[in-house]
Amino acid sequence: MKFTALIASSILTTCALASSCHPNYDCCNGCDVYYTDDEGEWGIQNNNWCFINDANCHPSNVCKFEAIGYPCCSHCNIVYTDDSGNWGIENDDWCGIRDNCGGNTPSSSSTTTTPTTTTTTKKTYPTVAPSFFSSGNIYSNSQYQSEVQSSINKLSGELQQQASRVKYTPTAVWLAWYGAPNEVPKHLGAAGGNTAVFIMYWIPTRDCNSNASQGGASDLNSYKSYVDSVYNTFRSNGNSRIVIVIEPDTIGNIVTSQENENCRRTAIIHKEALAYAVNKFGSLNNVQVYLDAGHSQWLTGYEDETAAIIKEILDMAPQGKIRGFSTNISNFQPVQREYEYHTRLYDALEKVGISNMRFIVDTSRNGVDISEAFAKTKTWCNFVGTGFGERPKGNPDPINMPLLDAYMWLKPPAESDGSSQGMRTDPVCARPDSLPGAPEAGQWFHDYFVQLLRNANPKF
Length: 460
What we know:
Helix content: 25-40%
Strand order of the largest sheet: 7-8-9-10-11-12-14-13
Oligomer: single chain
Largest sheet: 8 strands, mixed
Distance between the termini: 25 Å
């Protein structure tokens, strides 16, 4: 949101729907500039901010094709014309010819050839209301700040300076132990007007296909009581902006892990638990709900099966609405690979009648592209060579990734994935591509923090 001392108090702060000028604000009808920032020039219209329309106000500078997902050409050679304007080709893809470009027009040739027609269509998606990530700040929780501080105290020099910049990065609050619902009021109070992000991780027979994070509620009724407790707190804090991600890995395990007796036995209970959580949280106007949908290395090729399971769950939650899906939680896949998975899952969901979904991607540990190495071993536990990824940000690339609501650090990075020792030993954590010396899942792992910090991309 834009604010100035003179006029902020007199301007409504509610966001308009997306326009061709800006993903969250209307185009201005006029060209009077009241404010300028790194996004561009802003005006005032109908007592709210609007974005100055470059096409009308600065016609020589604008690339109108960016609004439909294409860059402008650096040349003026026209090879195709349609209702959008003139088109050229650059870097083996379509690009738009600027209106002030004195380019050639497609001409006929006297040479007889066999014509070849190539049609490239870039899918457009319906505009939806802005997510809670796209206005205001995202809450940075004190537990993660304390964990990072414990590593800052052990470091010196440049690394210590970089670590101090990590400390206040927003991370999700995990509701993953029996007393966690009692901590929710504290977090909402500390968040104030910022968007607070929570993750429900208390489903019965949690993490059914591995050992490191097993646990959760003792049965379905206990889980419902847990959900009810959190729901009641959310409802009594109606002015809070809340995002909740429901049960990482659960849908992925329903889809792909049915050869595991533990997962097969609990699949029906897991569907009922997910539906109950959606039905409760999704009925609140101050809460946006995302179901977890695994990650691209896991569920690529299973999009139709995943969509069918999601439909089954949502059909059991008539009072609940979801905003969309989270992916890459506690994993390491590159954003582009995840977004390609998002588009395929979006299409699969449309085929079963679920439309206009949006996505958030966990960027806490994907700063280094280790996807090829990961594909060989599937070592999800404290993978060697990873780094912090993109910082949490709402609406990070509306032109090229319009389905993406946010980058978010959903996994608090440097909290361990699991250990090769202790009561919850997991053999995956003993592999050579898992950083040794890790504590049990959820505990702070200083050596992993240092690795993530050294390999951060972008750097701190």
